[in-house]
Amino acid sequence: MRVIETDVLVVGAGPGGSTAARYAARGGARTLLIEKKQEIGSPVRCAEGIAQSWMEECEVPLDPAWVACTPEGARIFAPNGRHAVVSSGHAGDEVGLVIERTLFDKALAGYAAQAGAQILLKTHACGVIASNGTVRGVKGKSMGEDIEIYARITIAADGFESQVARWAGMETGLDPCDIISTFQYRLCNIECNPSYCDFYVGSCAPGGYIWVFPKGPGTANVGIGIAATRLADPGQTKASLDRWIAGKPEFSKGQALDMTAGGISKNKPLPSLVSSGFMMVGDAARLINPLTGGGIVNACISGKLAGETAADSVARGDSGEKFLQKYDRAWRDRMQKSHIRNWKAKQKFDTLDDGFFNRIIQTLSETKPHANTLSMLLALAKKHPTLVADFVDLLWT
To answer: Is there a contact between 59 and 108 (Cβ–Cβ < 8 Å)?
Structure first.
């Protein structure tokens, strides 16, 4: 059996894991980043939309090599076909750039390598190594060979299904009402407007929405998210998207270049993202935006904060839970308030019917507010106070 010792072990080379590895290595910690797949970034399980506002914070330079499209903003379509336009600067974390995730993820892993992190592909965890209540690393396989990796700090960045977090005893369980089932095609031979990322809300996607993110001339990611509690059977998600596409002349002749299915969480923040010798980031930490389902931005920000904390932990020789609470406090200071507001908004939106969505979109199309959750609610409250009476608590969250 092969044995490796390192300071910081990061499990999963997605955006959160690569960013955590980058900042841990930059801080002077010996860092190992492992990825179970043979290619970082593939297969893609994402609509591939991100904002640009966070990139300076995480020191991610804009590289045209991984940019597929630069939409001006978003259009939100009501069930009756009317839409509101939102500029990219105010459309949230999923609008501004449509990227090629395979190239984007590789770029982030490359930054980690440049900072000094070692990367092992086709290396997956089979369980955690723990003693006296402290996570000491993982056991697994690398290129088919049994392996044990011992680390002062282990960071789980293994996505929505995170087994590592469960093995570490973290509270990551999900209620069915917290899960969104998704399905997406990359369609070519369609008519789409490259200036906008489009969102369709209402009964076409109960508890979620349909998205059209342009990838280039005549090509777009076309996907759907439906609340798991609204599904009669597992095949309903794909069937619902197929039916919607068939009813749209601009999409009905499209051909699929790839397709992907999966799930995302929409839960409120977990009680804690750390234990002794252990931290969680990104989707593994349930830091997906509950309202939009986007996870890249939060993954990178949480990865940076965790990586910095890990390096500090190694330098100080303290990997105890009390010390690692520094990371838990940092991410909460940075994003918990908006996460809770978006979770509350999502809980409310899940109860709305098509008529409500029609009225909301009509009001937004007329008032044109800056479209973050708070400003949209304020705009609606001014014109239709009774319409948003059930949402009033969000204004002070």
So the answer is: no
Dist CA 170 CA 274 (whole Å): 8
pLDDT band at 368 (very low <50, low <70, confident <90, very high): low
Domain locations along the chain: 2-46+102-173+269-338, 68-95+176-265, 347-396
User: In sequence order, what are the residues at sequence separation of 6 or more whose Cβ sits closer than 8 angstroms to the Cβ of residue 53?
Assistant: 89, 96
CB-neighbour burial class of residue 385 (10 A; exposed 0-12, middle 13-18, buried 19+): exposed
Query: Do 122 and 37 contact (CB within 8 A), yes or no?
Result: yes
CA angle 230, 14, 274 (to 5 degrees): 80
Residue 18 vs residues 42, 176, 190: alpha-carbon distances, Å: 14, 29, 34
Residue-wise pLDDT for 306-327, tens only, equals 999 999 999 999 999 999 999 9
Cα 8 to Cα 167, 169, 348, 383: the distances in Å are: 18, 19, 40, 53
C-alpha neighbours within 13 Å on the C-beta side of residue 19: 26
| pTM greater than 0.70 | yes
Q: What is the pLDDT of residue 371?
A: 47
Check whether domain 68-95+176-265 has CATH 1.10.150.20, yes or no: no
The secondary structure of the chain in percent helix, strand, coil, rounded to multiples of 5, reads: 35, 30, 35
